Amino acid sequence: MLDKVKTVIAERWIAGVVLAWLVIAALLLLQRIGMVEHFFLSDTDDNLRMAQVRAWIDGQGWYDLRQYRLAPPGGYDIHWSRLVDLPIAGLILLLTPLMGSGEAERWGAALAPFIPLLLTLFALALVARRVIAPAAWPLVMFGLMFSSIAVGMFFPLRIDHHGWQIAMVSWVVAGLMDPNRRRGGVIAGVATALSLVIGLEMLVFLALLGCGVVLGWVARREERERLAGYAVSLGGAGALGFVIFASEANRSLRCDAFTPVWLADILIAGALALLLAWRSPVRWQTRLALAALAGGLLAAFHALMFPACLSRLEGVPPDVAALWLDRVNEARSILTHSPSLQLRTFSVILAGLVGYGLLVASARRDVEKMRKALLLVVPALFSASLLFWQLRVAPAAQLFAIPGAAALIWLAMPRLWMSGNVFVRTVGVSALFLIGIGALPQVIGQYMPKNAVEKARASTPRTSLSCNAPSSLRMLNVAEPGVLFAHIDLGPKIIVQTHHDATSGPYHRGWREIGVMMRTWQAEPEEARAAIEQRADYLLICDDARFSRRTAQQRRLANSLEREVPDWLEPVTLPERAPFRLYRVRARENSSPARR
Questions:
Q1: CB under 8 Å, gap of 24 or more: what pairs does 493-496 form?
Q2: Are 456 and 450 in contact (CB under 8 A)?
Q3: Prediction pTM value
Q4: What's 565's DSSP letter?
Q5: Where does residue 76 fall: left (phi above 0), alpha (psi -120 to 50 degrees), or beta otherwise?
Q6: How confident is the model over 517-555, as pLDDT tens digits?
Q7: Hey, how many other C-beta atoms are within 10 angstroms of the C-beta on 381?
Q8: Is 570 helix (H, G, I), strand (E, B) or coil?
Q9: What is the dihedral of CA 551, 557, 563, 566, to 10 degrees?
Q10: What strands lie across the sheet with 580-585, from one edge to the other?
């Protein structure tokens, strides 16, 4: 009976993945329906993505990605790609005739993240089928559902590119597991190129997986077909992606996006990999030497031609980084965050690493299984170790761990099930399943000690309004349209939810403006006057404790204005519950409205 069930699960896996996708999407939508109704794009990047899509639909050029409503009239140079804009804009245009432009934006943004979710589920299912067992794919569906940080990239309204990056890297892994070597290489190469076109967040993992393709060829000469397919598709898809998606600003030698710098690197990498696959010496020692030589040539080329790209890719000077970039929440080590977050982050990762240990042990006499197991365990270990550097790698770390967690359940479950002890067969099996998919730690994490930030959030009355809330931001529309001098994290939300423009946003190519902004908030009113008068029609201060949780130094301007308002500022009356203070800059009263 059990064998028949496994056979059905293995044979009907495509329909099963689609069903799992519909269930997960429905659950996520139900969980976030309130945010969808209020169009609450909570993350700054999601807001800017919506602003970019709006601008494109309204006629801004395909290759012009400047955001002219930040720091008008010149605007902000945004390093992103139009690739992620396509499905969002497509859904909005499709839904507009049915429900109007406002509702179309809301539901387009709600549904768009489910497209990369479907791609990720299919890729994970293929990995599980090819590495663990044909019927093991449902386990990775549960694994992703309970990987709280990874699945968070697919929440409704999470329209930034992180979900697409997870989808692309999962398809790179699926391609490397493909028994059809040439097809697998092509899939891995195309997915790598598309990931780079979207952004460089996964660069280190893509490089690691690329090394895995080459080392697989070193270990087994038969892998030359995969290497050749990877080489050709990487170079071809990369070149085509650059032509179609590289913005005007990204056609210069910049380090922070898919520019000629990284295009040159992947073209040379693809050419060298194709040469290796073509030559393919019989002796593995010779293949290893040639691979090392090719890697050295690629590294030397990058170092000599683009030395600026050997350091921090954002190009932000240390003084501005200290004021802003180093303080970003996701740029801090996992050790600086709460025990609850640490448990929710590491639960699937630790289960995955144990599962990979079992997988490697079971593959010690099978070269092909060992190749696949190592291609999974190395990035899993590497990404887990990077968490002690920055939390931002958590989605990738959980993604790489999910197949290992599934392997833990698949390989250990039969031993517990065959136990003569009833307690082991019942409680042990249940605990293994709940721990393996990450469900039990999610529950336990709710009761663990909170850090200072979480305590402050919990202590804030639910009746008070947040500065991030769309309803709060729309209160600012009582003032005539203008440019708001506001904290950089509010900039993208202002331009999406109000008729105002903003002086800046948290995007590193605007580091000069960010440096001015951060120093201005640390100044007394008279010291800040010139910077504000030069840039803005209004000064906006957020008094919401959940948003303005900063040091006294960072709140110096806000605190000074609470005591006394200078004559060059005029308070603007806002609705009673507004969590803001708004001041009109008198010197700008006769200036023209911000560029729309």
A1: 493/41, 493/44, 493/47, 493/468, 494/540, 495/47, 495/51, 495/67, 495/69, 495/70, 496/41, 496/47, 496/50, 496/51, 496/54
A2: no
A3: 0.93
A4: -
A5: beta
A6: 999 999 999 999 999 999 999 999 998 765 555 555 578
A7: 17
A8: strand
A9: 180
A10: 501-502, 483-485, 538-542, 580-585, 569-572
